[in-house]
Write a structure and sequence with these properties.
Elements: H1 39-49, E1 60-65, H2 71-88, E2 93-99, H3 106-120, H4 134-148, E3 151-157, H5 166-173, E4 183-190, H6 195-202, E5 209-214, H7 219-227, H8 242-253, H9 257-273, H10 281-300, H11 305-321, E6 325-327, H12 328-341, H13 349-362, E7 365-371, E8 378-384, H14 388-396, H15 407-412
Parallel strand pairs: 1-4, 1-5, 2-3, 3-4
Antiparallel strand pairs: 6-8, 7-8
Bound molecules: adenosine-5'-diphosphate (ADP) and magnesium ion.
Length: 428
């Protein structure tokens, strides 16, 4: 926090823009008094796991909500507070956190649980990093829990990324199966509400659980979240209206607090790079563009080439055709042409339809059923949730797709309003 001045001006540590930049880091867990607008959610999560603090068995809970709605933050916050409250009642409670987007198999997840339990205790036995299966990791987990803890809260973040749900079964049945007497409370977190349906198919009733839904933040909540971190910047660096603009942009898009904070940070970096003394609204605008492209790239990075081509097809139709929504058939026709461009065998129209549904899932596109007349039947209309320019940029970042026309090239191919829609054919 304090400014240190080192002798060599080359390494002068005074930052003209940022004061405490760490407040804007993605992984930063703010203090309680910087958490905004989630009182009800905090209460609800506490109500599910709170029994632990009184020496009673907790409920399992699943939290659903879009990215940046505070799910990870609130879970960790409540778990830590529960641990403290338990401690003051002389109950030993462990908190374990697994990011299942990293530890995405049962083996990886159980290994991480075992290792972090070992780290929190004086456990002597060696836990091998490889060459052993989940059974051995479970043995260590039950052993350490039995020896050292009355209760444990296990946070399984981004649980939809796990390749199977066995870990939920194991954790929820452990007491019944007499593996351990330790009370186990699971907080499962998913960015996808759709995971809920597959979860019911995959697990039986032994993972009896409550469900909570976190909603996107509105502009005034985002404003408050950012105001609470204003001291990330040097005094008077943020121009009037910048936080308001940033909140308005983020609220309009997705109500995602992570993005709002990222935009603010990126805007500060932009200001610094360009030698500006203040952060202006135009820095926020530019930062928002960068953030949006990053977001799309993040969302689509795990998608198949065909999903990316389908997105590109929709974006290019919007750019060259000028309409907002297109039917599956129209996107498919464009997609087939694009496949030729990048020498890829197209999948079937039905396959493409499924890819589009998957994208709707990711929050990149929205699809809506439109009832045609009696003779026409109904069909789906797809729209992009973002600027098509960003989709084109993000898709072209895939090295196998960088041959695709750029936004400017697509834009140039739509000179006449009459046959605009056909113009991409000149690329095929
Ligand atoms: N209610 C809030 N108050 C303050 N900061 C928040 C709040 N909700 C989220 N944040 C911040 O926004 C970022 C994203 O939150 P996170 O909990 O990771 O969202 P999710 O897990 O739902 O994707 C984090 O940096 C977090 O500190
Ligand atoms: Mg999260």
């Amino acid at each position: 926090m304090a400014e240190q001045t080192s002798g060599d001006p080359l390494f002068r540590s005074h930052d003209p823009i940022f004061n405490r930049k760490e407040l804007l880091h993605v992984g930063h867990v703010p203090d309680e008094d910087r958490i905004v607008g989630r009182d009800d959610e905090i209460q609800s999560v506490a109500a599910e796991v709170g029994a632990i603090t009184r020496g009673d068995p907790p409920n399992n809970v699943m939290i659903y909500g879009k990215t940046g709605t505070g799910k990870s933050l609130i879970s960790r916050h409540v778990a830590t507070r529960a641990q403290d409250a338990a401690r003051s009642n002389e109950i030993d409670c462990a908190v374990l956190y697994v990011d299942c987007s990293e530890a995405n198999t049962e083996t990886r997840a159980t290994r991480q649980l075992a290792l972090s339990l070992k780290e929190q205790t004086g456990y002597q036995q060696n836990i091998p990093l490889r060459g052993v299966g989940t059974m051995e990791y479970y043995q260590h987990i039950w052993g350490i829990l039995e020896d050292c803890f009355d209760a444990v809260i296990v946070i399984l973040d981004e649980i939809d990324k796990l390749d199977n749900s066995n870990i939920l079964m194991q954790l929820s049945r452990a007491r019944e199966a007499q593996k351990t007497d330790t009370y186990i409370g699971v907080i499962g977190i998913s960015n996808k509400v759709q995971y809920r349906e597959t979860l019911d198919e995959r697990i039986d009733s032994s993972f009896g659980h409550r469900e909570l839904f976190f909603h996107p933040y509105d502009a005034s909540q985002l404003r408050e979240i950012m105001r609470n971190r204003e001291d990330a910047f040097q005094p008077d660096v943020l121009e009037g209206g910048t936080i308001e603009l940033c909140a308005a942009l983020a609220a309009k898009k997705h109500g995602d607090a992570r993005k709002a904070i990222e935009i603010l940070k990126e805007a500060g970096e932009l200001a610094r790079r360009t030698g500006s003394e203040t952060v202006s609204e135009s820095h926020i605008q530019q930062a928002q563009e960068v953030a949006e492209i990053n977001r799309i790239e993040e969302l689509t990075s795990g998608a198949t080439v065909h999903a990316k081509l389908a997105l590109y097809a929709l974006a290019s139709r919007i750019i060259t055709g000028g309409r907002e929504t297109y039917k599956t058939r129209e996107i498919y026709e464009r997609y087939v042409g694009i496949c030729e461009l990048v020498a890829n065998d197209p999948i079937t129209e039905n396959g493409l339809y499924r890819q589009l549904k998957e994208q709707a899932f990711l929050g990149v596109i929205e699809s809506e059923k439109t009832g045609g007349g009696r003779s026409q039947g109904s069909y789906l209309l797809h729209r992009l949730v973002t600027d098509p320019k960003h989709i084109v940029k993000a898709v072209r970042r895939d090295s196998s797709l960088e041959e695709l026309p750029t936004y400017d090239q697509l834009h140039e191919t739509s000179p006449s309003a009459t046959n605009r829609d056909l113009d991409l054919d000149s690329f095929a």
